[in-house]
Inverse folding.
């Protein structure tokens, strides 16, 4: 029986040591916000944080984790950086189909946590492992900058309009 | 005229004499030193199983994934054609079920099969010749205890003159010494056990010792490393810079038993198979003996020597999450590929994120400017299934062009080895066809 520390909570799980964390999250615990994309650490959809570092949960054997803190998309909004990223994501309306976005937000939050004012090159290096088939890359970059600076980078969406405004 | 004929006849006689002299057999049964995993007190089947693993028979005689243990059919792609390994199960019609003890011993130690034909030295009788008769027969007993599998041998696809087996008699005369293991009484028992494990059983030299133009092992250049089937079998002499002289005993033992030594590298390709099929089954005392022997292999630089930079400047300047200190600019195509496909597991500081097996700093692969093994693992990936969780790297051969693989290889060599990589798209094209 393993005990995993996920989003500040302890989860006892009875799974084989070599089961990838993604399977445990989705199928055993039921945290389905983290997505399965390629299964071989190539697309980034399954990104979660391990002690604040973005990792690909689809290739991370759960037996190797010990007590390290796992953060998933469900709780990333509780961190200051995660909150800023999610707000910017809404304001810029990054999402198109949305499948890759859990992973995008996790990678972007990790970037902002270690580099509060990232350059284009920083963003490229941090986000290159997250693939988006809808090609929302331009909006992702703008949203990361907006989250960092608090200034509007590109056209904003209706989502951030004041409550009660005509739509 | 008569004198000329006499000279011709004399030369012919000398030639025939030399042929038979050089092909003389060693009639002795041979004596093995103490092997911890196969003590005389154990049953013949237990000894046979251990020795069969230690000699890594399965690497060539079982097609992986086929489920047909020892039924043969594994292809060896050589410059002059393809040889297939044979069925060595006890099936009478297609295997070696009708072979007597003497037939089997002769095949293993002299490279001559039951019908008197020569075997090709893809089968390492050149190493197994040192085995004791007792050990060879234990292996036979073990093989004969396993299920018989009916699977006819595949015909070799060799061009003339390589398809003429009798020619191997001359190859043997030139390159093969038919001789049992000789203990060196000036060395410790442990060293002698280690030599027997390294040479007679594990046949390390068949990959790690360079070969001459005639494909014979260069015995004066033992374990100095060579490229084989597109992979580089590294220099494992005691050379401090180019070999494994700077590794600790514990590092060598860890590499042999788990396929990974911290800060030194992880096995992949054929070496990963050797660990998976064979080396990890050695008992600790036998591994220790093997290490003792390797320690004494004379230091040699070898061809295209590799000097490992254990503190490559670009790596030291990088964090786990971002590159630093690279001469490569941000739009270097190799860097672009690395950040997209590689960094999330290997990390910019080469520490490896998901598993220590993914660490790159200090490995010989990234310090080899020819990039042989870097290219191979990029093309073919890696999949080791014995060290606890699977150690897995996807294959990128189908995803990237030869140019991209070359750019990525050279970037990896530059960043993690701090050297100018020399991999060309043509090299990649050639390595795609191997292994």
């Amino acid at each position: 029986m393993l005990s995993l520390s996920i989003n500040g909570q302890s989860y006892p799980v009875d799974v084989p040591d070599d089961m990838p964390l993604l399977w445990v999250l989705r199928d055993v615990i039921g945290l389905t916000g983290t997505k399965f994309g390629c299964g071989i650490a190539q697309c980034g959809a399954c990104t979660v944080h391990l002690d604040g570092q973005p990792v690909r949960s689809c290739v991370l054997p759960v037996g190797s984790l010990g007590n390290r803190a796992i953060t998933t998309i469900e709780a990333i909004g509780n961190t200051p950086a995660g909150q800023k990223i999610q707000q910017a994501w809404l304001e810029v309306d990054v999402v198109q189909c949305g499948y890759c976005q859990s992973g995008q937000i996790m990678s972007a939050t990790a970037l902002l946590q270690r580099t509060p004012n990232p350059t284009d090159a920083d963003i490229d290096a941090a986000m290159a492992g997250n693939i988006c088939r809808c090609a929302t890359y331009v909006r992702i970059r703008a949203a990361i900058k907006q989250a960092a600076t608090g200034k509007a980078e590109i056209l904003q969406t209706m989502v951030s309009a004041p409550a009660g405004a005509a739509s | 005229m008569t004198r000329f004929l006499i000279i011709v006849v004399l030369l012919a006689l000398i030639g025939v004499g030399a042929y038979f002299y050089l092909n003389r057999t060693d009639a002795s049964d041979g004596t093995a030193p103490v092997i911890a995993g196969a003590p005389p007190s154990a049953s013949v089947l237990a000894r046979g199983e251990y020795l069969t693993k230690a000699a890594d028979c399965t690497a060539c005689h079982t097609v992986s994934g086929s489920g047909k243990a020892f039924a043969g059919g594994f292809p060896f792609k050589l410059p002059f054609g393809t040889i297939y390994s044979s069925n060595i199960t006890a099936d009478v019609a297609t295997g070696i079920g009708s072979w007597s003890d003497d037939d089997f011993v002769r095949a293993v130690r002299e490279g001559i099969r039951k019908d008197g034909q020569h075997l090709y030295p893809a089968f390492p009788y050149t190493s197994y010749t040192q085995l004791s008769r007792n050990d060879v027969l234990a292996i036979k007993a073990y093989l004969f205890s396993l299920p018989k599998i009916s699977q006819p041998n595949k015909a070799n696809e060799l061009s003339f003159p390589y398809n003429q087996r009798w020619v191997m008699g001359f190859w043997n005369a030139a390159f093969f010494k038919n001789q049992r293991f000789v203990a060196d009484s000036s060395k410790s028992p442990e060293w002698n056990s280690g030599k027997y494990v390294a040479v007679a059983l594990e046949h390390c030299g068949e990959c790690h010792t360079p070969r001459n133009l005639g494909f014979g092992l260069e015995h004066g250049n033992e374990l100095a490393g060579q490229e084989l089937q597109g992979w580089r079998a590294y220099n494992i002499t005691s050379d401090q810079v180019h070999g494994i002289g700077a590794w600790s005993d514990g590092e060598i033992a860890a590499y042999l038993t788990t396929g990974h030594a911290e800060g030194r590298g992880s096995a992949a390709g054929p070496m990963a198979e050797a660990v998976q099929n064979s080396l990890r089954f050695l008992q600790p005392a036998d591994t220790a003996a093997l290490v003792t022997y390797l320690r004494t292999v004379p230091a040699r630089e070898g061809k295209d020597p590799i000097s490992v930079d254990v503190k490559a400047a670009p790596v030291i300047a990088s964090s786990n999450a971002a590159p630093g200190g690279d001469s490569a600019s941000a739009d270097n195509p190799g860097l672009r590929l690395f950040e997209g496909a590689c960094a999330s597991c290997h990390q910019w500081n080469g520490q490896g994120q998901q598993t220590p097996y993914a660490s790159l700093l200090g490995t010989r692969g990234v310090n080899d400017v020819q990039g042989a093994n870097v290219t191979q693992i990029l093309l073919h990936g890696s999949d080791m299934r014995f060290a606890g969780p699977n150690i897995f790297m996807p294959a990128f051969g189908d995803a990237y062009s030869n140019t991209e693989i070359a750019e990525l290889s050279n970037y990896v060599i530059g960043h993690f080895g701090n050297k100018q990589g020399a991999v060309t798209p043509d090299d990649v094209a050639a390595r795609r066809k191997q292994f």
The mean pLDDT of chain B is 93.
